[in-house]
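Consider the following assembly input.
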Amino acid sequence: VTVPTLTVERRRAGRSTILFPSAPAVRAAASVAGPLEGQGPLRGRFDQVVPDRLMGQDSWEKAERLMLERAVRLAAERGGVRLEDVDLLLAGDLLNQIITSSFAARDLDVPFLGLYSACATLTAGLALAAALVDGGHARRAAVAVASHHDSAERQYRFPTEFGNQRPPTATWTATGAAAVLVSAGGEAGEDGDGAPNPGGGGRTVRIRSATVGRVVDMGVKDPYDMGSAMAPAAADTIRRHLEDTGRRPDDYDLIITGDLGRVGRPLCQALLEEEGYRVAVDDCGLRLYDPKRQDVHAGGSGAACSGLVFAADVLPALREGRLRRVLLVSTGALHSTTTYQQGESIPGVAHAVCLEAAADGEG
Amino acid sequence: VTVPTLTVERRRAGRSTILFPSAPAVRAAASVAGPLEGQGPLRGRFDQVVPDRLMGQDSWEKAERLMLERAVRLAAERGGVRLEDVDLLLAGDLLNQIITSSFAARDLDVPFLGLYSACATLTAGLALAAALVDGGHARRAAVAVASHHDSAERQYRFPTEFGNQRPPTATWTATGAAAVLVSAGGEAGEDGDGAPNPGGGGRTVRIRSATVGRVVDMGVKDPYDMGSAMAPAAADTIRRHLEDTGRRPDDYDLIITGDLGRVGRPLCQALLEEEGYRVAVDDCGLRLYDPKRQDVHAGGSGAACSGLVFAADVLPALREGRLRRVLLVSTGALHSTTTYQQGESIPGVAHAVCLEAAADGEG
């Protein structure tokens, strides 16, 4: 009964990096941004900006759910695919029991696996989606993330209405949702979906590899300084990705973390330099808001942060040929109010995916 | 640049079932049971029974984490594999932000992807682990789940010390953890690990297919009757699995749900009968405790419930040849205290994996 297995060597590099030889394509992505996010530097580039944070719902939690659901519907639409033809939804968010994703999945009616990597959920989902598509276990998989400033604030910190002061190391949980549709890469192959990105055109963007993060904890205990808590995990994952693939930082046009912010980004760079890697790390949390006009302290954060910046900024740059190879490294803090109250430190995790735009003429 | 993709037809059946042609093996499993669970019908069959619910820790949460960590270490040990050679840990639990899994992953130091399917997390993890091994993206993947009666009770319901009355439809959250090590199925192939189950011997148990569940919500709002809330999802997944694979219930020696209990199990059977399927459904929640001696009301539940019963009861029966083909259908309720307080109903989900024991002489 034994069916020969695939040679694993083609699909793994080094200790912890997964390769995708069939190069699954980012067929489409969609972003639904909150009002503040819609007024930031990426204004005009989101698929939708919601006019208010409640969206006509009677709770922030219900608004968050609606944003995630809309993002998935939009991504399917932009990818020219009916929801019935999406084999799997991989989604997660920050709320207890990931209710945003679970309740949206109920209404979307797509087979659903819930993920929790805090704000690193986007790249956890992209890694799994690419593996399932590369392995032939899914034809099309949707990845979705969401966060909402007000629902997160009252769950993790204080009643939102209380309006407590926040130290300058604190980041601002982004309000919004993003979805990415991953499908088989071959345009002409029997499993292909035709040219990806049927709406927008441009170059085909493929997922080439992923490095799944270890949980790293350097003992930071301050929930108002999550950038410092997550920076060691980001540095660990970036270093392991470079070691596993035998590449140098220069081989990437952009290495961008999820939400390290103004405090965590230089710390991540310093940790990498200690290991002998000079890396200019960019950060999604520093692209989402304008620090001069928008008072978000150390930058943006939240599961939606890297999702919004990926869908509205990084992916278009790959499609348009302004970037050729990107390492997207979403970052997550894995604590809860319970672990904080029990005196625990804040463990971090970071998952990386390598995205490449096809060269001109390669489709 | 296009690398030919695998023919997807070999790896999908019907609308929502994934096939694993290489038949990844359950290399080892381990169970760590709480004191009550250790006195139930499966006593003597767990790898470890902890003497008290705190395990010398200063909180139930820390004890829960320790159980999950122990289960993973034991499964690796029983599988003859060092933790450094486990490519990936897929784990989840019931606590907010799955802190049990995340903090255990920190100490285990294995690349980690967090899952949340409530009490259906075991089969969500087994489906993903089997896909990653079948696709060649992981050589060995560990799946782990945990729950703890006291940490769950105080998070979801009332302070545990309050000792509030519970209606007879309520289930009892199991205390314990289980881990399953999945590896390439080929004994002789270049990716194989040699004979699975090096400790215990017996037949090789392989994961043949998985059906990922949709989120189903029939409007049940009573958090003290989760069996009724989850039964429709279990029936939906079992029906779709049978349709996708073209099989009849008789083709399985055992179809066993996770934690429907005394109330949900007959409801699941009735729903299947309405669709034309006469299925004798068994339930892990009814195997874990003795209703005559142990007052657990409608049965056991919790993420550990199907994990403990699988590792201590179902897997040994497959290894020993008493069962040949099993459909394991862990079931989850995807609500939170927030959704309950906002008047929402309780959505359910169920993921199924088909496990087969090799015939005599097949290894």
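Confidence is low (pLDDT under 50) at residues 1-7, 187-192 of chain B. Ask yourself how this observation constrains the way the partners meet.
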